[in-house]
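$ ./design --mode recover --in tokens.txt
reading tokens...
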């Protein structure tokens, strides 16, 4: 009688505790339902390159959401430092901007989110001078391919006279006189100057010229010959 009772107790313990634990352990060892399907979207398989492009497009669309106001430092004519409130992302093109320049700016903005690639001129990858080369091609204007040559393609402009469409050039380090980078002004107001460029770390993006980083590396600006 005692032996039968022990067997019954052991059987009940197995069903109530041991068996469920073993089942859970076995299930946890199985691959998840999405294993091996990281490139599946909307029920279709996409290559890693396609997924990268879709993610870039999603980031670009995300910039169109309600932006958050941020503050950047700016220097006044008297040399004082002030805080400038601005909203990241694309600002509307001013109504007085000539139609050809507006089209160039819109073309450049269409590349936002494209990753940086040295020598690149496509949506898979683009460098700074390649962005401007392709953007001006939209109005059938052929400009030099390199940033150094682009710096000679236009009339010099003082920073306080910048307008949308002007090209701005930078060095690799503060105080450098060797041009290594170029961007194009998209918005110019008394409060802020925005320019679009292909950053080696962030890809095609718009930034404020008045930030310390870009002001310290700024070399010159030119107004394109159209």
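writing sequence...
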């Amino acid at each position: 009688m005692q032996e039968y009772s022990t067997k019954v107790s052991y059987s009940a313990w197995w069903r109530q505790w041991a068996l469920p634990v073993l089942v859970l352990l076995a299930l946890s060892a199985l691959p998840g339902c999405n294993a091996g399907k990281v490139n599946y979207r909307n029920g279709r398989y996409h290559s890693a390159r396609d997924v990268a492009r879709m993610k870039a497009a999603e980031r670009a669309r995300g910039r169109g959401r309600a932006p958050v106001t941020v503050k950047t430092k700016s220097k006044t004519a008297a040399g004082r430092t002030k805080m400038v409130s601005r909203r990241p992302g694309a600002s509307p093109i001013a109504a007085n901007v000539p139609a050809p320049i507006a089209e160039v700016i819109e073309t450049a903005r269409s590349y936002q989110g494209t990753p940086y690639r040295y020598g690149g001129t496509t949506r898979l990858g683009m460098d700074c001078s390649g962005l401007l080369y392709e953007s001006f091609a939209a109005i059938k204007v052929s400009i030099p391919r390199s940033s150094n040559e682009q710096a000679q393609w236009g009339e010099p402009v003082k920073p306080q006279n910048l307008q949308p469409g002007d090209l701005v050039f930078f060095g690799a380090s503060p105080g450098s006189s060797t041009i290594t980078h170029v961007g194009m002004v998209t918005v110019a107001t008394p409060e802020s100057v925005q320019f679009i460029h292909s950053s080696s770390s962030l890809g095609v993006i718009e930034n404020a010229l008045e930030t310390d980083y870009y002001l310290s590396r700024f070399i010159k600006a030119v107004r394109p010959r159209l």
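exit 0
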